[in-house]
Amino acid sequence: VVNISSLYKDTGMFTYDPGFTSTASCESKITYIDGDEGTLLYRGYPIEQLADHGDFLETCYLLLYGELPTKAQKDDFVNRVTYHTMIHEQMNRFFAGFRRDAHPMAIMCGTVGALSAFYHDSTDITDPHQRMVASLRMIAKMPTIAAMAYKYHVGQPFVYPRNNLDYSSNFLHMCFAVPCEEYKVNPVLARAMDRIFILHADHEQNASTSTVRLAGSSGANPFACIAAGIACLWGPAHGGANEAALSMLAEIGSVDQIPEYVARAKDKNDPFRLMGFGHRVYKNYDPRAKIMQKTCHEVLGELGIKDDPLLDIAMELEKIALNDEYFIEKKLYPNIDFYSGITLRALGFPTNMFTVLFALARTVGWIAQWKEMVEDPSQRIGRPRQLYTGATRRDYTPIDQRR
Ligand code: ACO
Predict the structure, then answer these.
(1) Pocket lining: 275 vs ligand 1, CB cutoff 6 Å
(2) Does the C-beta of 336 come closer than 6 Å to ligand 1?
(3) 273 CB within 6 A, ligand 1
(4) What are 305-341's pLDDT values in tens digits?
């Protein structure tokens, strides 16, 4: 039996807070969430307004610099991002080193971390100019790397960036253009892609963002920090939930099966949960879920997909759950992942690319949060406490005396 009080008598007071549900790790001016109201603000601007009227690169500027850009600032920012879309040619060889059936997130972890081996002139975090160049490079190169991971995975040749296209159109082009065939980006789908990027751009101190901040607090370079964020995002409880929601809808299979699955979700003896429902912070409708639902309808409408059985199941499931006492009482509403899987699948992405797209979009949030931390004079290396519950001091036993 460990005598905790004797171990901790001289360490002062500290909180034991598994999952950090009530401990703030930083001050931030970037993103605000009111989970009870269902509000999400980037630098004070509601996500609905940014998704309706803004575009992703404008949102990147806002997250990085705190204000919406003027026309001249925006043009300049777009030019500077566009300048950096290529990756070093030698990096192509990294992709060839992976097995074809490698998960694209595994490829992302490796290649993004490798950027620091190529761009030495933007790894000195004490230099504001280098920090700025690193930020632009990350935002510019993520679509290229993500598209290359996709192309490698499906066994097609890489498509180089087209800098006369806007950010999201260029990304769709790099993913879906094939040699010897005309490929024209559909502007409605490009706009939907752009909106999906805006919705995922930042979400305050979630697990991956906290990981980026913790890695950065030691002075690690930004490329290494973003690679750490990607690794954290990969987990099914974080970036992998949209894939799980889509699989669940497929498993339910038809609208008449829904009551059975709702009953299972309410049964305490059954570990099954309705994927895409509930959120640690939102105890009201996730505002991103509403925009995602609208985007989903737009994409399916544009592609002429009239009857998507998974969409029918999703809409009916939402209706049933929102009128069910259990879900009302526990404040379980659809989250962003509920409709994003259906939308991304309709855009043509295989399920194992869903988290990659999330990482692409979240890169700006990670980099803005990293920059804010590095520029904060009160920042110290992150070093959580622990509540030790192991053995107290004891003496080494020679191996021949151990039982
Ligand atoms: N289906 C059924 N019951 C649920 C669900 C669900 N999806 N989510 C929560 N509950 C119940 C729990 O069983 C628990 O019930 P109890 O009070 O009787 O024990 C209660 O609601 C609270 O649940 P917690 O797990 O304590 O809530 P927490 O805030 O820790 O978890 C989470 C939030 C992980 C998102 C959870 O709601 C969940 O597992 N949802 C499904 C997975 C999912 O959609 N994840 C994506 C999140 S969004 C994102 O990461 C981008």
Answers:
(1) yes
(2) yes
(3) yes
(4) 888 888 899 989 989 988 999 999 999 998 898 889 8
Distance 200 CA to ligand 1 centre (A): 20
Q: How many CA atoms lie within 13 A of 65 on its CB side?
A: 16
Could you tell me the distance, in angstroms and rounded to a whole number, from the CA of residue 374 to the centre of ligand 1? 33
Whole-number pLDDT of residue 116: 93
Sheet holding 31-34, edge to edge: 31-34, 39-42, 45-46
Written as one letter, the residue type at 86 is M
Q: Report how far residue 396's alpha carbon sits from residue 22's, in angstroms, rounded to the nearest whole number.
A: 40
pLDDT for 4: 57
Mutate to test the pocket of ligand 1, among 40, 277, 324, 358 (most ligand atoms within 8 A of CB): 277
pLDDT at 30: 98
ipTM of the assembly? 0.94
Query: Which are the contacts of 86, defined by CB distance < 8 A and separation ≥ 6?
Result: 141, 144, 160, 161
Q: Six-digit token pair at 134?
A: 């690193």
User: What's the pLDDT at 1?
Assistant: 45
Q: Is residue 139 within 8 Å of residue 112, measured between CB atoms?
A: no
CA of 136 to the centre of ligand 1 (A): 36
Annotated active-site residue 53? The verdict is: no
**Residue 152 CB contacts under 8 Å (≥ 6 apart), including other chains:** 95, 96, 98, 100, 107, 158
What is the largest distance, in Å, between two alpha-carbon atoms of the chain? 78
Cα distance between residue 265 and residue 45, in whole Å: 35
Q: Which pTM value belongs to this model?
A: 0.91
pLDDT band at 243 (very low <50, low <70, confident <90, very high): confident
Out of 337, 376, 395, 400, which one is annotated catalytic? 337
Is 2's pLDDT higher than 60?
Answer: no
Cβ–Cβ < 8 Å for 216, 123: no
Q: How confident is the model at residue 9 (pLDDT cuts 50, 70, 90)?
A: low
Is 101 among the catalytic positions?
no
Which one is catalytic: 55, 200, 279, 286?
A: 279
Query: If you measure from the C-alpha of residue 250 to the centroid of ligand 1, how many angstroms do you get, rounded to a whole number?
Result: 20
Looking at the predicted structure, is the pLDDT value of residue 294 above 80? yes
Give the number of the atom of ligand 1 that is nearest the alpha carbon of residue 238: 50
Instruction: Give dist(CA 147, CA 125) in Å, integer.
Output: 28
Q: Given a cut of 70, is residue 5 above it in pLDDT? A: no
